[in-house]
Design brief:
This protein is of the alpha/beta class and 168 residues long. It contains 5 helices and 4 strands. It has a 4-stranded parallel beta sheet, with helices on both faces.
Length: 168
C-alpha cells in the first residue's frame, strides 16, 4: 500500500502507531498484540482524525488532532488501538474503513476531536454516531465547548432533535 507523506495510507489508516512496538496494518496486526476485545475490562479506543483540506498545514492539523485525541484517551483511561485519518478527502475512506473494522477491532470508544469530524452536516454526524452506538461503541470528543469529553451536551442536542421529529 502506498504511504503518504502524512503517515497514512490511501485508505486513511496509519501505517504505524507511535506506540513503541505497535504496528497497524491492513491485515489487523498490531505488532503482536491481539486486536479482539479482552475480558479484562480494558477500554480500547479507535482514533479518527479529519482535516477538510489537503493544503499546506494539514499535516500539522492532523498531528494536533491526534495528540488531542491521545491525551483524551490517556486522561479517560482508554488505550488507542488504531488511528484513522481523512485529509482533504470528501470520500472519507478512513472513516469508512474505521466503521467497517468496528466488529474486528471491537473498541469501547471512538475518540475524535469533536462531533464535526464525523461529517459537515448534522445528519452525517448522527448517522455515524448511530452506527457506533449500534455496535456498542461510545463516541468520545477531545474538544467539547462545554468541557464535556463524553459529549453529553451533544447528546442533549441529539435528544431534542429526536423529540422535535417525534412531535411532527
Amino acid at each position: 500500500m502506498t504511504q503518504r507523506k502524512d503517515g497514512f495510507d490511501q485508505d486513511g489508516q496509519r501505517d504505524t502507531l507511535p506506540d513503541p512496538g505497535a504496528k497497524s496494518r491492513a491485515n489487523g496486526d498490531l505488532g503482536g498484540r491481539e486486536m479482539h476485545s479482552t475480558n479484562d475490562g480494558a477500554k480500547r479506543a479507535m482514533v479518527y482524525i479529519r482535516v477538510a483540506s489537503a493544503e499546506h498545514g494539514s499535516e500539522e492539523q492532523a498531528q494536533q488532532q491526534e495528540v488531542a485525541c491521545r491525551e483524551t484517551a490517556q486522561r479517560l483511561g482508554f488505550t488507542p488501538v488504531a488511528v484513522y485519518s481523512d485529509i482533504g478527502s470528501t470520500e472519507r475512506p478512513g472513516l469508512r474503513r474505521m466503521l467497517d473494522e468496528l466488529d474486528t477491532i471491537k473498541p469501547t470508544s471512538v475518540i475524535t476531536l469533536d462531533p464535526s469530524r464525523f461529517g459537515r452536516k448534522y445528519q452525517e454526524n448522527m448517522a455515524v454516531m448511530t452506527r457506533l452506538r449500534a455496535a456498542g461503541v461510545e463516541p468520545v470528543f477531545a474538544h467539547d465547548p462545554t468541557e464535556d469529553p463524553l459529549g453529553l451536551s451533544w447528546r442533549r442536542s441529539e435528544a431534542s432533535v429526536v423529540r422535535e421529529a417525534d412531535a411532527k
